[in-house]
Design goal:
By secondary structure, this protein is mainly α. 54% of the residues lie in helices and 8% in strands. The protein is built from 16 helices and 3 strands. The protein has helices spanning 2-19, 30-33, 36-52, 63-66, 71-81, 94-111, 124-128, 132-146, 188-191, 198-202, 207-225, 235-238, 243-253, 269-285, 295-299, 303-319; strands at residues 24-28, 157-166, 169-178. α5 (71-81) runs parallel beside α6 (94-111) and α11 packs across α16 (303-319).
């Protein structure tokens, strides 16, 4: 009897090994699962999901147990990107869940700008198998794309066992996997600057860090302008005539700028100059002194000048 059980187990192990031929997997070491930084990252991601899906009355308690069936990711895609897929709302069978995940992840990868499959650290199989590492990588990428001003714990890394199954056996080695960058908060590099103007310091950094801060500013702007039915896509061009800048200042500070004080539809340089000058004067009155910015700089779409003004507003109101 014992021999039969042994033979059955041996056959099953062989079948399992064959089914995973050529597969590469990374498994988080048990010691890393207890890391307070990893726990904090999971907590921030869960809070972000729950605040995003609050209108849907969806509550997530576990990244491993609550995202594998595609329901939460489908709703996140809908809320964050306005994409509505023709898939089952509640997928009960494994096949239906995988189909839903395939459609959702395909659309998410497009929205995240990911074209090289080799660089993507998640897939349908990993998410459906409740792989924590893949799930966190996906959520961090979503945060960076859709809400880059969300403060993720910086420098979160875990020790993983990287395994590859082949016909000759299983190869494995221990690696360090980074989940967030050393300075993941969008404006960390700016807030820590001393002496030098923070925006001028920012522009000396790598392009991806500059873009991260720009995305954070854009998200902050649109978050506050949405109630007025306004959307900003190009910060340099759309702030050049001073109109949206004045409306943004009024929206943030809780006051109304009378229409007779500025030109709502400026048609020439003089009217644009009047608007931008008024905006910079309002900033001074509010105690926001923007160094070395002339109204003409904003009108001429000088990226550094525009970033300085917007960052001053961002820093003040994010601090609140």
């Amino acid at each position: 009897m014992e021999k039969d059980v042994f033979d059955w187990k041996k056959e099953k192990d062989t079948e399992d090994a064959e089914s995973f031929q050529g597969e590469k997997r990374k498994i988080i070491q048990p010691t890393s699962l207890q890391d307070p930084k990893l726990e904090k990252l999971k907590e921030v991601l869960i809070d972000w999901i729950n605040s995003t899906l609050k209108p849907e009355h969806i509550v997530v308690q576990s990244l491993e147990e609550d995202l594998y069936d595609g329901l939460v990711l489908h709703h996140m895609l809908s809320r964050l990107a306005g994409v509505h897929l023709s898939v089952e709302e509640i997928a009960l069978s494994s096949a239906a869940q995988i189909h839903k995940l395939e459609a959702t992840l395909e659309e998410l990868d497009k929205r995240l700008g990911l074209k090289d499959a080799a660089s993507i650290k998640w897939n349908v199989k990993l998410i459906h198998n409740k792989d924590l590492l893949a799930t966190i990588h996906l959520l961090v990428a979503m945060v960076r794309c859709f809400q880059p001003d969300l403060d993720l714990p910086p420098n979160v890394k875990v020790e993983v066992i990287a395994m590859e199954v082949s016909s000759s056996g299983i190869k494995s080695n221990v690696q360090i996997e980074f989940l967030t960058e050393e300075s993941d908060a969008a404006a960390d590099s700016l807030n820590n600057s001393e002496g030098e103007d923070p925006i001028e310091q920012l522009l000396k950094l790598e392009a991806h860090k500059v873009n991260t801060v720009k995305k954070a500013l854009l998200h902050f702007i649109n978050q506050n302008m949405s109630t007025m039915g306004l959307q900003v896509a190009d910060m340099d061009k759309q702030f050049a005539d001073g109109v949206i800048l004045l409306l943004l200042i009024g929206q943030l500070e809780g006051f109304y700028v009378p229409l007779y004080d500025f030109n709502l539809t400026p048609v020439n340089h003089s009217e644009m100059l009047q608007n931008v000058t008024l905006a910079l004067d309002l900033l001074k009155d509010l105690g926001l002194h923007v160094n070395n910015v002339d109204p003409q700089d904003i009108i001429s779409q000088d990226a550094t000048a525009t970033l300085k003004v917007l960052y001053a507003l961002f820093k003040k109101h994010k601090a609140k």
